[in-house]
Structures are given as C-alpha cells and as structure tokens.
Amino acid sequence: MHICFVTNKYPNEVDKNTTIFLKQLVDEIAGQGIKCSVISPVPTNINKNYKKLPLKRAENNVTVYYPRYFGLGQRDYLFFNPAKITTHCFTKAIEKLIDSNESLGDIDVFYAHFVTPAGIAVARLGRKYNRPSFLAHGEATLQTIKHFGEKAVKRELSSLTGVIAVSTQNKEMISDYVNPKIVKVFPNAINEKLFKPSDKTIARKKLGFNEKDFIVSFVGSFDERKGIDRLEKAVDSFGGDVKLAAAGKGKLKPTSKNCVWNAPIDHDDLPIFYATSDVFVLPTRNEGCCNAIIEAMGCGLPVISSDKRFNYDILDNDNSILINPDDLQDIKTAIRSIKNDKNKRENMSMMALKTARKITIKERAKNILNFIFDKGGYAQK
Question: Distance between CA 272 and CA 293 in Å, rounded?
C-alpha cells in the first residue's frame, strides 16, 4: 500500500512548527509498514523563502515533495476571491510531479488535509488516476469552503471515498457537503512517548519560573478566537496570585506583569512547558479538535475550556471544567476552583491523563488505516 498525503502545509525549514500533528500521523502510519509520500506544494511567489526548500527530501521512511506553484491565497480581494485559481495551480503542480516521477506511479490512495486547496485537489486526483481519495476535515469554521463556493465544494467533493472528521461537530459540518455515510470521527491524538507527566520543579527551573507560583498555561495563537485576551484579564484579576505562561504568537501578545512567558515554543519542548503549570486554560470560541488540549491532558494537566460541542469528544466534567469562553467571570471562577481545591485539581489531573492515554497517535493511525482499507476496498492489514 502506498498512501500519498497532500497538504498545503507541512513542517520544513521555513515553517518548522506547522501542522506537526499531520507529520506525527504520517510518521506513525509509515511506522506501521505503509509506504508514505507527502506532496506539499509551496507558493514561492508569496514567500520567497520557499525557494530555499529542496524539491524532495526523505525522513523517517517518508518521502516529502515540495513542488513550486503560483498561488494567490484564499482571502478576499475587494469583490474577488482567488481560491479557485490557487486550487487549480496547486492541483496542476501535483499532477505534473506525479506524471514525471516514477516513484509516485504506484500510489494506491490519496489523502488530503483540509478542504481547500488540498481536499479539492485530492478529489480531482482520485478522479484522474482512478484511485480512492480521502479527506481529513479538521477546520474550526467553514470560511475556506465559503471562499471557494459552497455549491462548487459540494460538487468537487462528491467523488471522495471517505472523510475523517476530528470531532462530532466537524462531522456534522462537513456532512452538508459530502454523503454523511462516508464520514467517520477520529479525534486528534498525541504521541504518548513525548507528552507525558514530568517533574514540575525541574521544568520550572529550566524555564526560570518561580516554584511557588500558581501558573495557568495557554498554547495557541494570540488572537480573539483562542481567547488569550480574555484569559489575560482573568489572570490579572487575581492581583498577582496567579501567573500566566502563554506559548504562541499573534497580534494580542500578552504583556501583563503577571505573564511569565509570551513567546512561541518548539513542539518538542512543549512537554516541559506544560509541566510547569497547574492548569491548562483555553477559552476558545471554535475549534476542530484542539491538539493543545490533548497534549496538556497527556502531561497530566486539568483543563479549563469551552462548553461547546467541538470539545465534547475529548472533555467532560471529570477531566475538565467547561466554561463560557466569552464570560470573564466564568473563566475566573473556574481558575479559582482549581487553585483553591487541591483534591479537585489532583483528581481532575488523574482523569485527564486517563483520557489522553485512550487517544494516542498509534491507535488513531491504526483506526484511520482500517477505515481506508474498508472504504477503499483493500484487504485488511
């Protein structure tokens, strides 16, 4: 079996920490004996640094290709959106690569990450080369679908063999554009060998944090959707008794005197970052299925996050406190309850770890492969 993964973003020297979750899945599937290729076209006209990337590289028994293409993005320009032009050029770059490369001549399955441009491209590739095509749908909103055109997306995706949704809510979202019978829910997962509990004292010493502080951690973009601004205000309301460690970047970078960290962290260093904190808080307005939440639980952290349907596949009242992400008082009350109740904090930590151990990348890869074999008509491995 040879699976070709198609994505518009994949970790490289320019975008080191992009879509790490996809790379983990690809590496795990390759580790289970499946031949894997990744095709990630790069728009060198948008980012000249992409010209530095090799056209091809190999790592962990996976071959990654970075064909060049002319892209215009998928954002509105006055009354025009270039999503269809970008997707066309994206797809043609992949076709040109496949048609000129003998090592890609034995592809059995196409697998795309995100609806546009990769999902549309994979549906087209499946039709052209008469191969099963699968889409992983993990978007938080339908924005890119609306940019491309809802009727056009529904028409393009009609030939897909199967769809992997990361949450029940995601399944319901994408089922307006594909046959619900081909959609299966597989929540995002973690590498349990990387994300596991570690000594808090050692972690805080390594990052220079005070051993006695009560620290709230946050991982994600510094924007209104993720809620870093609301969390910063909630932390400040404690008057210095609570500190904020926020890993990420964005226009709403926290600058409070109670913020002990406000910068990006390499993915491999995240376990140490999580280990420094007492609780993970993410008052996000929408998600597909948040990897950071699962990573935090894997490190044994209780979670405070949104009482919204995208969280219900991974969070419940045993491993988390579910709040209204737009209610500052709700966020404050949840933090206070974790801070002031050690038994509650420890019990919730234990349940979070128990949940995380059920959603590992190894099991997710195995389940997705079984789904591909079944839908694609291949013999089970």
Answer: 15
**Alpha-carbon gap, residue 57 to 14, rounded angstroms:** 14
17 residue type, one letter: N
User: What's the whole-model pTM score?
Assistant: 0.93
User: Residue 313 in contact with residue 185, Cβ under 8 Å?
Assistant: yes
**Which domains occur in the chain, in start order?**
2-189+361-376 (3.40.50.2000), 200-356 (3.40.50.2000)
Q: How distant is the alpha carbon of residue 159 from its chain centre?
A: 25
Cα(158)–Cα(149) distance, integer angstroms? 14
208: left (phi over 0), alpha (psi -120 to 50) or beta: left
Q: How far is CA 244 from the centre of its chain?
A: 23
Pairing of strands 56-59, 62-65: antiparallel
Q: What is the pLDDT of residues 146-186, one digit of tens each?
A: 999 999 999 999 999 999 999 999 999 999 999 999 999 99
The CB-side HSE value for 68 (13 A sphere, CA atoms) comes to 12
* C-beta separation of 277 from 304 below 8 A: no
Q: What is the pLDDT of residues 316-355, one digit of tens each?
A: 999 999 999 999 999 999 999 999 999 999 999 999 999 9
